[in-house]
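== Folding the chain ==

***
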Amino acid sequence: MGFDILGIIPARGGSKGIPRKNVRQVGGRPLIAWTWEAAQVTPTVTRLIVSTDDQEIAGLARAAGIEIPFIRPAQFASDTASAIDVVSHALNWLQEQEQYRPDFVLWLQPTSPLRTSADIEAAATLAQEKAADSVISVCPVEHQHPALMKRVESNGLLKSWQDDQTLIQRRQELPPVYCLNGAIYLIRREVLLEQQTFYPEATFAYVMPSERSLDIDTPWDLYLVDLILKDRCKHELD
């Protein structure tokens, strides 16, 4: 591929919405395992680490052959710590302790277990082809297209979300729009550290299908992903 990609899987022990979310069983494996298994077999991922504050998660990762170069400090594992805080800590630690400076950082959240190795590889290829500063995965917005969004006023009246919104009668006439699906953030290390964002100006979209774009945020999401992954495993065995 020609450049060094560091994969970082962030996995703190706490979670308000779903307690111990990252180690909950889905499809017969801990949730986080689906992410590191996809990254481990991706040829362009030069190095893969887990950033965690949790000893159980660290133990699971080490048992799977995943590197844990440090235990994440508490200030970067709180509800108020941002993703940029966490990735900056990892990059600064690796530079200070190992003089290691990858070309790109690949941020892989465990809450996107349906993302595949092929998705990661395709995003890396896109970054190279476009000489991109960043590649972020998105999926098409279909049933929740912004042109169809409504609001309910205080008196109960149903109104368009935007007052000047043009009513489009046929779904086929809607212009395509996309939303971030949380599965892949690939960015040049220097750009991230300098601009403190995953989304600089030269950001390209890697479009993923909706069926691989489920981002786990609620117990219902976890239930759906469990069904999907169990079905996938069943078909692989058939």
Q: What stands out?
A: The mean pLDDT is 90.
